Amino acid sequence: MTMNKGLAFVVSAPSGAGKGTVLAEVLAEVPGLTLSVSHTTRAPRPGEVDGISYHFCTRGQFQTLVRHGDFLEWAEVHGNMYGTSRLSVEKLLAEGLDVILEIDVQGAEQVLRRMNPPPVTIFLIPPSLAEMERRLRARATEAENVLALRLVNAAAEMRTMSDYEYLVVNDRLDEAVRQVVAIIYAERAKKRRLLSGAPAPLWGV
Ligand code: 5GP
């Protein structure tokens, strides 16, 4: 793997935790930070743009990418396939950008094993199951059966949160954004990061 200059962050959350909203604000606020655009076989929601929200593809196209080893990680989530392009993440990191991988818990497990250095992991928690369901219903983009599946899966996803380094409760949006931004700046300032592998070591130490 190429020398990474940027940092990778994994952000996972159950559906309805408000991850999309929080990350949009974090990305607008933090320079040098970008979002990895995943591939998915899920149909676009109203307002989603191909190449920006996701690279939308068929199952056949997805399976070809899997066979060619093009994914850094991939998983089936809520009945659809999702995957992260290895090349595009490597390119962004090599350019010195910090990259957020907005992926599920199965994907997080895979990248933790495959990336060196491993990504920083953040889990976003909804304030309660009731609030999560309310947010999912308010979005009203999913059919009732899909919504039910997402709620069932949420319980399993919540059980894995202790595997993550950082937990952020998304009760108040501005507070959650502030915490994620703080985590990113703290990770950027870590001693091991500034003193190792940097092109120009700090003060020649
Ligand atoms: P949604 O369909 O709501 O956009 O995403 C559903 C779930 O798939 C979320 O938990 C989201 O984080 C996850 N997801 C999105 N992209 C990827 C990906 O590239 N890999 C994996 N493993 N999960 C993803």
What would you say this structure looks like, in words?
The chain is an alpha/beta fold and 205 residues long. The chain has a single domain, classed as 3-Layer(aba) Sandwich (Rossmann fold). The chain is 42% helix and 20% strand. A 5-stranded parallel β-sheet has the order 2-7-1-8-9, sandwiched between helices. Helix 1 packs across helix 7. The model has no long low-confidence stretch (mean pLDDT 90). The site of guanosine-5'-monophosphate has 15 residues, from strand 5, strand 6 and helix 4.
CATH first level: Alpha Beta
Task: Report on the biggest sheet.
Answer: 5 strands, parallel
Radius of gyration: 17 Å
Count of individual helical segments: 8
CATH architecture verdict: 3-Layer(aba) Sandwich
Bound molecules: guanosine-5'-monophosphate
Please bin the fraction of helical residues. 40-55%
According to CATH, the homologous superfamily is P-loop containing nucleotide triphosphate hydrolases
Unreliable parts: none
How many DSSP-defined strands? 9
Arithmetic mean of pLDDT: 90
How many separate domains make up the residues?
1
